[in-house]
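User: quick one, fold this
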Amino acid sequence: MDIAAFYVQLNQIFMSWGYLGLFLAAALAASIVPFPSELIFAFCVTRLDPVLCVVSATLGNVLGGVTLYCMGMLGKVEWLSKCHFVKYERVRRMRYWMRHKGAPIAFFGFLPAIGQAIIIVLGMMRCNIYRVTFFMALGKCARYIVVAVIIVLALNK
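Assistant:
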């Protein structure tokens, strides 16, 4: 089975599980698996309650982010670059850039390409996990709200 077929099957499974599938897909996408959870989110928003979809996806995505934070806190950069798809050089540059920014930068943990590196570096820097989780949840929730509003508005035209 090729990777595209695998993702199609995984999407179908998660979509059939409703809110739980959305939660799990969002958690995986934010942690260890490069997975497009937005497809499942869009599907669920069109068929389920958009507010509960935002809550479910946000909680799952934050759980995945906390997993990344803990990986950063516990792991060495070299280990993370081997076991994870975050590149060593990106983490090194992020660490230098973030040295005075602190937990509020976790708001941008939802950004593609650099979001995961941000969260890992915050874990490496031992920033307060409660503050990191708070700002990370704000950013991830804001992203899901924007996507849900766009989908709902597009469907109502």
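User: anything notable?
Assistant: The first helix runs from residue 3 to 16.
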